[in-house]
Amino acid sequence: MSRLDLGKKRLARLVYTFAAMNASHLLLLCLLTGCANIGREPKPTRYEFVVHVESDPSHPLAGARLLHGGRELGVSANDGHITVRATGSEGERIELEVAFPTGFRSPEAALRVTLRHAVGTSERPEYFTACPPLTRKLVVAARLEHGANLPIRYLGRELARSDSDGVAHLLVEGETDKTVELTVDTSEQPQLRPKNPTARFRIGNRDDIVVLAQTFQSSKKPVAHRHRPSGPVRIR
Question: In Å, how far are 19, 71, 111 from 88, measured between CA atoms?
Answer without folding.
Answer: 41, 16, 17
